[in-house]
Design goal:
Blueprint lengths: L4 H7 L13 H9 L13 H11 L6 E3 L6 E3 L17 E7 L4 H13 L2 E3 L2 E3 L3 E5 L5 H13 L6 E4 L3 H11 L5 E5 L4 H11 L3 E4 L3 H13 L5 E4 L5 H16 L10 E4 L6 H10 L2 E6 L4 H14 L12 E5 L8 E5 L2 H14 L3 E6 L6 H7 L4 H10 L10 E4 L7 H8 L2 E4 L7 H14 L1
């Protein structure tokens, strides 16, 4: 079990020397307990205390890197069983599968799609992560040619090499060994050969067993062979088996009851009875690497959106940077619309404003990512905040009028905003979908006065 801050504090020298960068040993202990500091920062800890604290304070699931460069996949390093306890940190890599019986043109088309396809949602670009190549033919030469077809596109995507035969893996690694591919999979029968390849090329390695005891033994064997970066494939035959095994692995890892299970989990959604259901299940239930056949546009967008939602910190709403934003090319007579910095509010309103084809300004104030209604109820949105934002972002220099449109849910603040700012406040609609009609009708009337 992870130590609490006070338990850690008892093991510290209590010098309050500040050499760790914190003002007191208790502050340092609290950071260690939260996984936000390293025991090596304290120069006065003996080796025994460092070993004890290091084992307790480092994340219970090892961080594993797949690939390299900009498209590198980081998985693991999770600390909780349930997302609401803290957050999940590293989104699963969703990888499209091809096999060596496909033509080079077909493989290249899938590779280009993973390389180029992007879904932009609430200001974030969402992508799929890599290519899994399977040795379906059983031929090392065909496998190597398939990997070469992927690498020919120069996509620099993290590869996963799926082959039972170490000879096939070796042939494929000639083409992508420097890209740190994930090798699948070491079993009780071939782990020595697979570990040898993983060590030679510096690759992470999937270990595969249908039982938790089998995974534990394989972890011990691979570590003894000198391979530390491992990914666990629990080899589920059904989705029900995946749920039970992945949950057991996460529970035993988080509580450190079985530290050998403290590694990311692999799921082959393409090998299940229902790929889309398995993909969604993997995203929500602890999979760190998910292999799937190329998805149709609808399921692809759904998967990327689900992953973004699950791996957004539930305690920190997605926020926009406060400021004055332009929609179109507004002039001195353009309307000014004030709203909050909750990303979903911003992008929803921005979309409807663009559809209205009326150039305008969006004044985004800092409500710490809260929505309009929540910010008003919590007192985060108030007249002083609006007044300060007008001054900070020099709104008066951008427009010749002193009129501001506020969201309908902020109507209780209209009088106070007018008194604090000297601007005339117009109350807009509650539903952003109605803002276009409002600007074409109410704003045009107001402008004519």
């Amino acid at each position: 079990m992870a130590l609490k801050a006070l338990d850690i504090y008892k093991l510290l020298p209590k010098k309050n020397c500040k050499e760790c960068g914190d003002p007191t040993c208790l502050t340092f202990a609290m950071k260690l307990a939260g996984g936000k500091a390293d025991v090596d920062l304290c120069p006065y800890l003996d080796d025994q205390a460092k070993a004890m604290l290091g084992a307790s304070t480092r994340p219970p699931i090892r961080l594993v890197r797949i690939g390299f460069g900009e498209r590198l996949i980081k998985v693991g390093e999770e600390n909780v069983l349930y997302r609401h306890e803290k957050t999940f940190y590293h989104p699963p890599g969703i990888v499209f599968k091809v096999d060596d019986t496909m033509s080079p043109e077909e493989i290249a088309a899938v590779t280009r799609r993973v390389r180029d396809d992007t879904l932009t949602r609430v200001g974030t670009e969402l992508r799929f992560n890599g290519i899994a190549i399977e040795n379906t033919s059983g031929s090392p030469e065909a496998f190597a040619n398939a990997v070469a077809a992927v690498e020919k596109e120069q996509a620099h995507l993290p590869p996963i090499l799926i082959a039972k035969n170490p000879a096939a893996q070796s042939a494929a690694l000639v083409h992508c060994g420097t890209y740190r591919p994930l090798l699948h999979a070491a079993t009780a029968e071939n782990f020595r050969d697979m570990c040898s390849l993983a060590k030679q090329h510096g690759c992470p390695l999937v270990i595969r067993s249908a039982t938790l005891d089998g995974l534990v033994q394989l972890v011990r064997n691979c570590i003894a062979e000198g391979v530390q970066d491992l990914v666990l494939d629990p080899r589920p035959a059904t989705l029900g088996e995946y749920i039970s095994r992945s949950t057991a692995i996460r529970q035993l890892a988080i509580t450190r009851a079985v530290p050998e299970l403290g590694y990311p989990v692999y799921l082959d959604a393409a090998g299940t009875c229902c790929q889309d259901a398995a993909l969604a299940l993997g995203i929500t239930r602890y999979a760190s690497v998910i292999v799937t056949r190329p998805l149709m546009p609808g399921p692809a967008k759904a998967a990327l959106t689900l992953r973004q939602n699950i791996y957004t910190d539930p305690q920190k709403p997605i926020q926009m940077t406060p400021g004055l934003y332009r929609v179109g090319t507004p002039d001195k007579n353009a309307p000014v619309l004030m709203t909050v910095n909750f990303s979903l509010t911003f992008f929803t309103l921005q979309g409807y404003l663009e559809s209205s084809r009326i150039p305008c300004y969006m004044l985004i104030v800092d409500t710490e990512g809260l929505s309009v209604l929540t910010a008003v109820a919590a007192g985060k949105l108030n007249e002083m905040l609006v007044r300060d934002a007008l001054k900070k972002f020099s709104v008066e220099e951008e427009v010749s009028h002193r009129k501001m449109i506020i969201p309908g849910y902020a109507s209780p603040l209209s009088g106070r905003i007018e008194e604090a700012t000297g601007w005339k406040v117009l109350v807009g609609p509650r539903d952003a979908a109605e803002i276009g009609d409002y600007l074409h009708e109410e704003w045009q009337k107001e402008k004519a006065q």
